[in-house]
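User: tokens in, sequence out, please.
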């Protein structure tokens, strides 16, 4: 750690003006960020992980009763066994697993420290967080995509009754609820709210429930819709949200539905603005970042991408099970550069 003159507090001590130096700085402490830290440690690379929220922050914010589509062995990182009660583990089991991995491996992770900027100058990266300044030879971006929801962009979307995240059914009991979307998250929320005693209407842009919905759940939601327990409007969209009702457009025309809450689970996207600010080139059609598939190095030399961030808007193509390999590729490439 090296100090430099403070421009914020004059003669006083300022953490932002104390430069921390490391070989690798990893942004994001989700499962893939953790895997990157483990891979760096195995290659004896000095590293620091910065996470703006809690450990595995996205997973922490998943619905309380969520079960993964993947089996526990597909969620393992660095060949550390993940033993779960059922073949497909739940949120709490996954949180416990990743906590154990981090604490038992004594990983260097700094939580609740948001990265504000990443700049490259004279072959090194200068990173500023809300708490500290860093310099690193390499940066790994493993920030996922769960923090920025895809908005409906309709009047009334900013009302307090509208949310783009679903945690549990209890607040929606005895209420008139609209669930927007037909993905796994939408279907799970609709079924749980209905079973707990809430009235549910689904608004779906497509002609049917999504094909990627978990195979053991899809018949359940389709049967509930067919019997009328859950209402559903297909090929429909919300045009306006009001205090006590929602206006939708359907193939049969405009309809007004009495409403207390709107749960708009229309998906999420990576922070493309952040990627562009740090110099990563994105494709024009789907915002897919430029990177080498063998090394995961982006168009900015020394800056690597790991996990779902690699998919741009195609967030459904990357999961823990098929992107955990990114960590090994990155650490191997950095280690080879260091040795050459």
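Assistant: Sequence out:
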């Amino acid at each position: 750690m090296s100090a430099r003159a403070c421009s914020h507090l004059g003669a006083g001590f300022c953490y932002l003006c104390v430069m921390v130096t490391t070989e690798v700085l990893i942004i994001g402490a989700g499962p893939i960020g953790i895997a990157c830290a483990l891979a760096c440690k195995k290659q004896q690379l000095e590293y620091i992980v910065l996470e703006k929220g809690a450990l595995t922050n996205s997973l922490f914010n998943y619905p309380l009763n969520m079960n993964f589509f993947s089996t526990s062995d597909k969620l393992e990182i660095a060949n550390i066994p993940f033993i779960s009660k059922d073949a497909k583990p739940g949120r709490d089991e996954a949180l416990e697993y990743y906590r154990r991995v981090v604490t038992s491996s004594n990983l260097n992770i700094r939580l609740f420290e948001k990265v504000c900027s990443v700049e490259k100058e004279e072959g090194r990266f200068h990173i500023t967080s809300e708490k500290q300044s860093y310099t690193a030879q390499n940066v790994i971006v493993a920030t996922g995509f769960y923090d920025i929801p895809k908005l409906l962009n309709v009047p009334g979307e900013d009302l307090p009754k509208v949310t783009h995240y679903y945690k549990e059914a209890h607040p929606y009991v005895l209420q008139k609820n609209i669930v927007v979307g037909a993905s796994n998250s939408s279907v799970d929320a609709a079924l749980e709210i209905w079973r707990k005693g809430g009235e549910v209407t689904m608004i779906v842009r497509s002609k049917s429930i999504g094909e990627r919905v978990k195979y053991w759940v899809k018949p359940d939601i389709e049967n509930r819709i067919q019997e009328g327990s859950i209402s559903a409007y297909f090929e429909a969209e919300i045009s306006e949200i009001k205090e006590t009702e929602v206006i939708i457009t359907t193939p049969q025309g405009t309809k007004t539905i009495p409403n207390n809450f709107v749960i708009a689970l229309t998906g999420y996207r990576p922070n493309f603005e952040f990627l562009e600010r740090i110099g990563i080139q994105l494709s024009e059609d789907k915002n897919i970042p430029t990177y080498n598939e063998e090394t995961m190095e982006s168009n900015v030399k020394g800056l690597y991408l790991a996990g779902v961030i690699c998919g741009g808007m195609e967030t459904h193509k990357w999961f823990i099970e098929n992107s955990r390999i990114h960590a090994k590729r990155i650490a191997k490439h950095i280690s080879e550069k260091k040795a050459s």
